[in-house]
Amino acid sequence: VTPDGKTARRLDAEDPLAARRKDFLLPDGIVYLDGNSLGALPDGVPDRVATVVRRQWGEHLIRAWNDDDWWTAPLRLGDRIGRLIGAGPGQTVVGESTSVQIFNALVAATRLRPGRPVLVTDPEHFPTDRYLAASVARLLGLELREVPVPRLAAVLDECGQRVGVVAYPVVDYRTGELWDVPAVTAAAHGAGALVLWDLCHAAGAVPLRLDADGVDLAVGCTYKYLSGGPGSPAFGYVAARHHEHLDPPLTGWTGHARPFAMAPDYEPAPGIGRARIGTPSVLALAALDAALDAFDGVDLSRVRAKSLSLGEFLLSCVDSLLAGLGFAVVSPREPARRGSQVTLRHPDAYPMMAALVERGVIGDVRPPDLLRFGFNALYVSHTDIWTAVRVLREIALSARYRDPRFQVRGTVT
Ligand SMILES: Cc1ncc(COP(=O)(O)O)c(C=O)c1O
């Protein structure tokens, strides 16, 4: 593709998802390339949250748990997300944070494979996943092995019969690399192990087929490509074949077979209901429910096709506009190996991103020197990408980013 504004406009004119942008409340003049961290606000969310607050909470009061279906929302929304990740109904539950879901899933998965003392995870996994795997290993007396995805097969050859659980990200949060879910899942199964996938950077961006690929467990957040809002509840998936023996460590009362019997002992609910933990965050679920409307009638293969088009266009703009300015492309160039993100490396990544954000182009940075540009195909256009790379070129050329004010770091990067 030719990296120019005319091509961007042509690609946007041919884009079957272009009309979806109006489903999001994006401020004028902003190019938003950080939907892989916090998705933009879907336009149905403010009114839905207001209704739940004023009418349901304000007027219906505690009756709303039944009358407004608050109690069943974690499973109802789980099924809505299930549709986006290739999971049939009754296998996905929404609630808690991703970190809590990861802990619950790691322990539950390990308990499904007794006598297998090795827990495998990715040395490049998101920190919370690594920290939790280390803690679970200490808690359960497991041996933690950090194995890069490309080395998994060799490790399974060497000691596969000792591996109980393999916990990997579908998309690497730093580089945007997309791993081969069916191949890795099949390799783990070949050794008799289970796989726990973290879908944070994939759900809503990459078509997934958890059921068809034989995935065992998965977790994911809803505030990135699903645009559920800051801190929106996470989700957990457990394949139906594991439900009967699933023994999650967080035996909260909402996962009980009869929560309102107030029984003295825990008896797990049948099905995915046993993966529920505590009282759901109803306001956050309402925001997420409205956010998921943006995916109604959307075919994720279209989302993927547009995301790949945006990625290809971004890479061609980078190659032509940023050549010789000290940038390197970190993400895989092969489309099939890339999520919905392109990462660049530059020694002055931090101040450059700060200068870019000041100009209305929002991406983010990860240490030590990475600039991340994520694109949600529902609201990012090729023209946005063209603007972003043009502005980045101007910033790099003018060296304006060296101004000391761009060195000031916020708590959250
Ligand atoms: C792969 C992955 N796991 C987990 C998390 C975050 O976990 P939590 O929602 O508990 O903060 C992130 C956040 O970026 C992530 O990228």
What does this structure look like?
By secondary structure, the chain is of the alpha/beta class. Helices cover 36% and strands 12% of the residues. It has 12 helices and 13 strands. The chain has a 7-stranded mixed beta sheet with strand order 2-8-7-6-5-3-4, with helices on both faces. A 4-stranded antiparallel beta sheet has the order 9-10-13-12, with helices on one face. It has a two-stranded parallel ribbon with strand order 1-11. Helix 6 (127-140) links the parallel strand 3 (118-121) and strand 4 (143-146). The longest helix is centred in the C-terminal third of the chain and has 22 residues, at 300-321. Pyridoxal-5'-phosphate (PLP) binds next to helix 5 and helix 6.
Offer a quick outline of the entry:
With 413 residues, the protein is α/β, with parallel strands linked by helices. The protein has twelve helices and 13 strands.
Give the SSE map:
Blueprint: H1 5-13, E1 31-32, H2 45-60, H3 64-67, H4 73-85, E2 92-94, H5 98-112, E3 118-121, H6 127-140, E4 143-146, H7 152-159, E5 163-169, H8 181-190, E6 194-198, E7 217-220, E8 235-238, H9 282-292, H10 300-321, E9 328-329, E10 341-345, H11 349-358, E11 361-362, E12 364-366, E13 370-374, H12 382-398
Parallel strand pairs: 1-11, 3-4, 3-5, 5-6, 6-7
Antiparallel strand pairs: 2-8, 7-8, 9-10, 10-13, 12-13
Helix pairs in contact: 1-12, 2-9, 4-9, 5-6, 10-12, 11-12
Bound molecules: pyridoxal-5'-phosphate.
